[in-house]
Amino acid sequence: MLKVGQRLIPSVSGTNWTVDGMITLSMSSSGLSAQMETSPPQIYYEHSIDNPNASNESPYVEFVNGSLALFSNSTTNVSVISVPQASSVQYMKLGSDGHLRVFEWVSGWKEVADLLTGFLGDCAYPTMCGQYGICSDGQCSCPASSGGTSYFKQVDNRQPSLGCSENVPLSCGASQYQSLLELENVMYFTFTSDLDNIDASTCKETCAKNCSCKVAIFQFGLNPTSGSCYLLSEVFSLMNIDKSKIFYNSTAYLKVQNVTNGAPNTSVDNRRSNRLPVILGSSVGALFVVMFLIIVAVLFVRKRDANEAEEEYLDQVPGMPTRFMYDDLKTITDNFKKKAWRSTKVAVKRLDGFGQVKKSFLAEVETIGSIHHVNLVRLVGFCAEKSHRLLIYEYMSNGSLDRWIFHKSNESVLDWQQRKKIILDIAKGLNYLHEDCRQKILHLDIKPQNILLDGNFNAKVADFGLSKLIDRDQSQVVTTMRGTPGYLAPEWLSAAITEKVDVYSYGVVILEIVCGRKIFDRSLDEDDMNLLSLFKRKAEEERLLDIVDNYSEDMQLYGPQMVNMMRIAAWCLQADYTKRPSMSIVVKVLEGVSEVQDGLDYNFSAQPSTNRATKFGQMEVEFSATTALIPSVLSGPR
């Protein structure tokens, strides 16, 4: 048990650069934190308590029942840091590298968990690359030279993780010979703003005038003239920004000494004397750049005002989830670095771009924002401010369905009962969209990648970026082609569409779940590449079990059920959409209340004849533009 005022201090080996007692794991009234004991402390991990003063008792953290549990008082467990279930004795240890690891006895002590590691990985530890070292994908290096001058060298060339040292130590008595080395796209493991709403020049100037400042970290969003500045008197491991995880900009300015034996660095002075021609040429170019930026700014303001006017109507739609301002969302998630929001894991989906991206975002918010069903992923909130478009969803711990049916690893195999349950869950979700909502909702992109699974493998329909709302008195709707090749119903090419296009896509997904393969698999023989063609051939041969995924011994026991499930898929795949069942009928069949219709046609791709076929060329172009739309970045748990 670790109580308020107590702390853990790791032992330090003789080869480790860390000062004894510099890393600590401590408990305070506001929560658990791991930090570098500088002045002020530099925190690299924090697990806070909501309303820390709500109880008269001091909080504490305890390694109990296979979990690191944080308690606000003797009876209330505030939160739990998950630890793998113990099969034998376990212990945890704070290492000299700042990691809090859990070990378990399995014919010797084996590491089973690393509790403090966040989504940025090992690079977010202050000791990863030592003082002044820069971490990138687990590799350590020193800051690059500038203008031919190298300011840093590795402490030990054979051990890059020991960090870097200054070639010329900083000296306040020779501050006139100091400069700031700029490192773009470099961030620090922690950030506590000392100055807000400033530009980079002000941040640099403040550090230059402060003798104790060794580095300034400047962070900003889209506008580089309005950011935040963090001044550090002690510098540990820095890291290069991973653009797939970090959505803000960060620049580090390292203070370096241009002094050798008390005299200015002559190479620096020589470079200054040669700058005049460059400055004159740059000034002329800068004039044209300024004029260009003014024009761009005017166009941007006009576009922004148009965007705000179009998106304001979202606030008027009944039942909308919480709408966040971008700055508030950054604060809640600590610049999108926190894994939890209000003690609940969430997934943040970020959309970047214009045009189709905006349509996708608005469609998703308007569609799923006002509906709730156990088999639909819940939208917790959204942000639509200027160019920022973010969707906050409930977190689905088992990811998307394709991971479990297309990847043949021992860790991701579903048995028959699980597959049946998932097929039924999807059907219930689609039935709700088609028949139980105020407006009929066509999803238009049903595929395994858009089916998410929670911790108990309950399936939920997700990603409504291509969905279409139609009134209940409308039986059909004409729209541009949208969706994913292989899952598109044949009527997309020549006729108005109905909710039966979702039924067709659902039929494809049933086959993929039962057979454990993709609709198109180019690794197979040419005759077997297309699952629908193979399905037709095996149905004619009355050998449907030949294409069932051999995922368990269930085939002998459940063979008839598998064949019947494939007949349900065939019913959903009828080329004539009027012969496909509604999703409510599909649910009844799956629950054993009804039976599959006889006389099924296995020629699933037959095209209905219509005089509208001449529009195929135009629709194909629009479809191609839609399928190229992949703007989303799903951050994972936040």
TrEMBL record:
Tree of life domain: Eukaryota
CDD domains named among the record's database cross-references: PAN_AP_plant (cd01098)
PROSITE patterns per record: PAN, PROTEIN_KINASE_DOM, PROTEIN_KINASE_ST
Domain Protein kinase: 273-593
UniProt xrefs under Gene3D superfamilies: Phosphorylase Kinase, domain 1, Transferase(Phosphotransferase) domain 1
Catalytic activity of the protein: L-seryl-[protein] + ATP = O-phospho-L-seryl-[protein] + ADP + H(+); L-threonyl-[protein] + ATP = O-phospho-L-threonyl-[protein] + ADP + H(+)
Assigned EC number: 2.7.11.1
Enzyme class: transferase
Key words of the record: ATP-binding, Disulfide bond, EGF-like domain, Glycoprotein, Kinase, Lectin, Membrane, Nucleotide-binding, Phosphoprotein, Receptor, Serine/threonine-protein kinase, Signal, Transferase, Transmembrane, Transmembrane helix
Name of this protein: non-specific serine/threonine protein kinase
Source organism of this protein record: Eucalyptus grandis (Flooded gum)
